[in-house]
TrEMBL record:
This is Cholesterol 24-hydroxylase. Its main location: other. Its cofactor is heme. Belongs to the cytochrome P450 family. Pathway: Steroid metabolism; cholesterol degradation; Lipid metabolism; C21-steroid hormone metabolism. It is found in: Cell projection, Dendrite; Endoplasmic reticulum membrane; Microsome membrane; Postsynapse. It comes from Chanos chanos. It is a single-pass membrane protein. The chain crosses the membrane at residues 12-32. PANTHER family: CYP46A1 PROTEIN-RELATED, CYTOCHROME P450 FAMILY 46 SUBFAMILY A. GO terms for biological process: cholesterol catabolic process. SUPFAM superfamilies: Cytochrome P450. InterPro entries: CYP46A1 (IPR039983), Cyt_P450 (IPR001128), Cyt_P450_E_grp-I (IPR002401), Cyt_P450_sf (IPR036396). It catalyses: cholestanol + reduced [NADPH--hemoprotein reductase] + O2 = (24S)-hydroxycholestanol + oxidized [NADPH--hemoprotein reductase] + H2O + H(+); desmosterol + reduced [NADPH--hemoprotein reductase] + O2 = (24Z),26-hydroxydesmosterol + oxidized [NADPH--hemoprotein reductase] + H2O + H(+); 7-dehydrocholesterol + reduced [NADPH--hemoprotein reductase] + O2 = cholesta-5,7-dien-3beta,24S-diol + oxidized [NADPH--hemoprotein reductase] + H2O + H(+); testosterone + reduced [NADPH--hemoprotein reductase] + O2 = 16beta,17beta-dihydroxyandrost-4-en-3-one + oxidized [NADPH--hemoprotein reductase] + H2O + H(+).
């Protein structure tokens, strides 16, 4: 009995000690947060709803309301000026729309991608996701090594040779739309262009022909959407994973990640065997991914890195272009006068010739303007962030080092400080003789970490839009909402439902 009482006494004292230690640690953490507040509170910013969580409750509230978070950032930029702070626990984020700061930070390799954001995407709810792929890797040397290996797959000479695939995949969509026009079936354009861009990226990047336009029961679009939605909850709501009612959705997200990486492993192994047997293989992204692992002799780490880049290109190469195309179709449906001018240009350049040549793309100048204006109003990848370790001055405000700097092209593109009547869809902003926006328009980011695939994306978008306008008249189905859905990337919420009619 005495032994039992001794054991109980020791347990009570130890639990009391542990509880006291936790209280002391929490008190120290609160003191540290207070120190961070005092260090950065001279910078303008919205009131914090929580001492501990800072502005996170506002961000989570916006997420649950299913609104566009970037509209809140725009509201704060208009109210608090070109540089303001956001607090979250002990972390400070500085949002700036100042062009000089944008130029200084984004154009320099001195400022790495913010590890607090991009390292979180190494996994998704515990399942390895983007890892150390080209988009998420923060280490400059590792990024530069990967980028140099990938560059040949995006050279102008190689892209020129892809026109046949762009034409072929876009033609499959045109056949599908012709059938829908004949049957007077409404066309859900976002879903259809999603299939086209997925067909293109899998063929061009990985040598696989999915034919999603005619075979839409494959699981990839749903897996990509689950991953994108999972990214939003994972990054913006730190408490999301702790609620039991979210476990089913989280399980589906993890299965989607596994599907993409399992697919990548199968395709990589198939290409690896082809290369080892001496077969001719294209200089596509998959070949370059394999080359990136040669130095490591295909060990476990290099295998995972290959899968990181596979998932990165699989998602990024499809999602962004599809959303841009859907928004362009939506805006042309809202502005028939712009659509008519665009049809006239397409007719002049192409006539009745259905194959689009590389040389034609440079002649479609007004189409380029329309696509750029689409990305101004609807930048599908709206923002980027960098880690700033040293003190810096932005718009006359001295900011102590050790913060995340956020640059949001959605915000700058919708401010009349930079664009007159910013909510008006006006392709003339990008006319050849119009003044160039000064570091306030960057839908593909800027500097050394800008999007590697931007030329690829815009070539693909031009081919699809030119063929669509050459062959069809269309109008937007009445009554559909024409607003934005924010799932990390921006996409049209309605899916852009159109009534199609073949042109004479």
């Amino acid at each position: 009995m005495e032994i039992w009482e001794t054991v109980v006494g020791l347990m009570w004292y130890s639990s009391k000690f542990v509880f006291s230690a936790i209280l002391v640690l929490f008190a120290c953490y609160c003191i540290y947060i207070r120190h961070i507040h005092q260090k950065f509170d001279h910078i303008p910013g919205p009131p914090r709803p929580s001492f501990l969580l800072g502005h996170l409750p506002i961000i989570v509230q916006e997420l649950r309301k299913n609104t566009v978070l970037h509209d809140k950032l725009l509201e704060w930029a208009e109210k608090y000026g070109p540089v303001y702070r956001i607090n979250g626990l002990h972390h400070v984020t500085i949002v700036t729309v100042d062009p000089e700061a944008t130029k200084e930070v984004l154009m320099s390799p001195k400022y790495p991608k913010d590890p607090t954001v991009y390292k979180r995407l190494f996994t998704l709810f515990g399942q390895r996701f983007l890892g150390n792929g080209l988009v998420t890797v923060a280490d400059h040397d590792l990024w530069y090594k990967q980028r140099r290996i990938m560059d040949p797959a995006f050279s102008s000479s190689y892209l020129r040779g892809l026109m046949g695939i762009f034409n072929e995949k876009a033609d499959r969509l045109m056949v599908k739309l012709a059938e829908m026009a004949d049957k007077q079936t409404p066309a859900h354009m976002h879903g259809l262009v999603n299939c086209v861009t997925l067909d293109v990226i899998t063929k061009v990047a990985f040598g696989v022909d999915l034919d999603m336009v005619n075979n839409n029961n494959l699981p990839f679009p749903n897996a990509i959407e689950l991953c994108l939605k999972g990214m939003i909850y994972y990054i913006r709501d730190p408490m999301y994973k702790f609620f039991p009612w979210n476990r089913g959705f989280i399980r589906n997200i993890k299965e989607a990640v596994k599907l993409l990486r399992r697919t990548g492993r199968a395709w990589i192994n198939e290409r690896k065997k082809a290369m080892e047997s001496g077969e001719d293989v294209p200089k596509d992204i998959l070949t370059q991914i394999l080359k990136s692992a040669e130095e490591n002799k295909f060990d476990d780490d290099s295998q995972e890195l290959m899968l990181d880049n596979f998932v990165t290109f699989f998602i990024a190469g499809q999602e962004t272009t599809a959303n841009q195309l859907a928004f362009a179709v939506m805006e042309l449906g809202r502005h028939p006068e712009i659509m008519e001018r665009l049809k006239a240009e397409v007719d002049e350049v192409l006539g009745k010739r259905q194959e689009i040549l590389y040389e034609d793309l440079g002649k479609l100048t007004y189409l380029s303007q329309v696509l750029k204006e689409t990305l101004r109003l609807y930048p599908v990848a709206p923002g980027t962030s960098r880690w700033v370790a040293d003190d810096m001055v932005i718009d006359g405000i001295k900011i102590p080092g050790g913060f995340t700097a956020v640059f949001d092209t959605y915000v700058t593109s919708r401010m009349d400080r930079f664009f007159k009547d910013p909510l008006k869809f006006d392709p003339e902003r990008f006319a050849p003789d119009a003044p160039k926006p000064y570091f306030c328009y960057y839908p593909f980011a800027l500097g050394p970490r800008s999007c590697l695939g931007q030329a690829f994306s815009q070539m693909e978008a031009k081919v699809v839009m030119a063929k669509l306008l050459q062959r069809f008249d269309y109008s937007l189905a009445p009554g559909q909402p024409l607003d934005i859905e924010d799932i990390g990337t921006l996409r049209p919420r309605s899916g852009v439902i159109c009534r199609m009619k073949q042109r004479d």
